[in-house]
Design goal:
552 residues
């Protein structure tokens, strides 16, 4: 979908408008990004308590029949339901990519294989040995912790439909409502259990609802900003959304730390009450977001698409001034045609590059650090309070180097930053894995953790999104949706599998929690090779030049 492109004349005419009004609209929209970061990182401080409250009961072998069997059985059914939904979304992407006939065949094969797997998975005998129960509990743990990402896939995949049929403002409102419901439901999943499942899966469903809000906000927040911003500062204003995501993560790190510090040394309180307050705290920014959205307008472009030219003109008069509003509206109406070229117009390479950019951004392990930082620091020997304080340092480093990336990406180029970041992440993760393997978990391990965060924030964090926005020509810009879907699915896979890799009894005995980090280090090396060999430099290139590049 193309955004407002008013040209040089239209851009200059915005100088006569009210820049403070535009900035206020931008700040409201970026609350969607802040909630994105807030909601995805809240689990960081609560992860240990969630395991204590929901998962450790499974490990009590004496209560196997009364506790473990229902939890594991419902886990299997929910996993099947989730995978059917995820693969249904993937099937839709294949149909868009290859057409109804070829895509439909592939989609049918995917659904059939999923059904065959589901039959065997549900019919598989329940674990009866203590070690088998432990490994199954690790899988349930990964499912609980990563459950919000399932909603992210659903919300991200539906964001295009929602923004087009209901509008950008209403899409953000739905996102805010989802955040609010999730915060309240996750606070007391037992009391608000209207789903007829065990409390642990009531919690999972509320987290999925919150994830749907994240998925919607991840696309619609920057879309709203882009459609109300003057062209000459659009890049800077849209980049505020990425900054807001990182800032939201930093805020929840502080909130989690303050909640934990309110009862210092009392892990029992944290495991029964404290984690609930962490999730409930999200209702405050979500409520503020909902209220503020009542006072912002729909974007002029969407209003023009709906034929509401008078309302579009009114919004433009506030943004650009009365003298320029009519001319800008005519420019907008001149760009309303939608270009729906087949996604394969430029070959499969561009689609593959988009997907791999998204997949590598997740497979280097960033969300393991963001979601499980407190757990990692505890494995290093830190206390609960200290581990949460250290996550604040992680958030600060992330925020600082994101700003560095925003300031340097147009100067040094995309490829150099991405390759430098990949090398830095590879060195950090391999070294961190060896630190765990050798049981040398002092300041050196903390240094490599922070170096990894800095390397990612300088490169694959913000710059990956810059590349994704630039590599797709206007005529197939909607193909970006397959890359976004791939990113959330990859995110979910990494978050789901980390507890299995990190807490597996055999792997822990052999590698002392270091194995998972070596995998992410290898992925970082592969990401550097991928950037070097397959991804073109887009610095200074127009979209027309990008079209010519892919046509070659």
């Amino acid at each position: 979908m193309a955004f407002i492109d008013t040209g040089n004349k239209g851009s200059a005419s915005f100088d006569k408008g009210n820049p403070y009004y535009t900035m206020l609209l931008t700040l409201v929209a970026t609350l969607g990004g802040l909630l994105f970061g807030y909601d995805t990182a809240v689990v960081n401080g609560a992860e240990k308590s969630l395991v204590k409250f929901f998962i450790e009961k499974i490990l009590v072998h004496e209560n196997y029949e009364s506790i473990a069997i229902p939890v594991i059985t419902q886990y299997k059914w929910m996993m099947v339901a989730v995978l059917f939904i995820v693969f249904f979304i993937i099937s839709g992407q294949f149909i868009k990519l290859l057409g109804a006939k070829k895509g439909g065949i592939i989609a049918g094969v995917i659904i059939l294989l999923t059904a065959i797997w589901a039959k065997g998975f549900i019919g598989q005998a329940l674990p009866i040995l203590a070690e088998d129960i432990k490994n199954t509990a690790d899988a349930v743990k990964g499912f609980v912790i990563s459950s919000a990402l399932i909603g992210c896939v659903i919300g991200g995949a539906s964001a295009g439909f929602v923004s087009k049929s209901l509008g950008r403002k209403n899409g953000l409102m739905i996102s805010a409502i989802a955040f609010f419901i999730s915060a309240i439901g996750a606070w007391h999943p037992e009391q608000f259990n209207v789903f007829g499942v065990l409390p642990v899966y009531s919690f999972v469903i509320y987290r999925i609802i919150g994830g749907m809000g994240v998925g919607l906000a991840s696309m619609i927040s920057p879309m709203y900003i882009a459609e109300i911003a003057p062209a000459k500062i659009r890049g800077k204003l849209v980049s505020f959304n990425q900054f807001a995501i990182i800032f939201g993560m930093l805020v929840i790190y502080f909130v989690n730390y303050l909640i934990a510090r309110s009862h210092p040394g009392d892990d029992t309180w944290l495991d029964t009450v404290g984690w609930r307050l962490m999730f409930l705290s999200g209702a405050i920014p979500a409520g503020i977001f909902m209220v503020l959205l009542f006072f912002v307008p729909e974007t002029p472009r969407y209003l023009a698409i709906q034929g509401k030219n008078d309302k579009a003109l009114h919004v433009l008069e506030q943004i650009a001034g009365k003298d320029s509003a009519k001319n800008i509206l005519e420019d907008i109406k001149g760009t309303l045609h939608e270009l729906n070229a087949p996604w394969m117009s430029y070959g499969f390479t561009i689609i593959l590059v988009g997907i791999l950019l998204s997949v590598f951004q997740q497979f280097v392990g960033i969300n393991v650090v963001l979601y499980y930082a407190a757990n990692i620091f505890r494995n290093m020997g830190a206390s609960t309070d200290t581990s949460m304080l250290q996550t604040i340092i992680v958030g600060g480093v992330n925020l600082l180097f994101t700003v560095v990336a925003i300031l340097t990406v147009d100067k040094f180029g995309r490829k150099p930053l991405m390759i430098i970041g990949s090398v830095g992440m590879a060195v950090s993760m391999l070294a961190l894995g060896f630190a765990f393997y050798m049981n040398q978990l002092g300041m050196a391990a903390l240094f490599f953790m922070l170096l990894y965060i800095a390397a990612f924030a300088l490169s694959w964090g913000p710059v990956c999104w810059v590349l994704l926005a630039e590599i797709f020509p206007n005529s197939i810009r909607s193909a970006l949706s397959i890359a976004v879907a791939a990113q959330w699915i990859a995110n979910w896979i990494v978050s789901l599998t980390f507890p299995m890799l990190n807490d597996n009894v055999w792997l822990t005995n052999q590698f002392h929690h270091g194995f998972a980090y070596w995998i992410y280090g290898v992925m970082s090396i592969l990401s550097a090779l991928f950037m070097w060999k397959m991804v073109p430099e887009t610095k200074g290139k127009t979209l027309e030049e990008m079209e010519g590049l892919w046509k070659k």
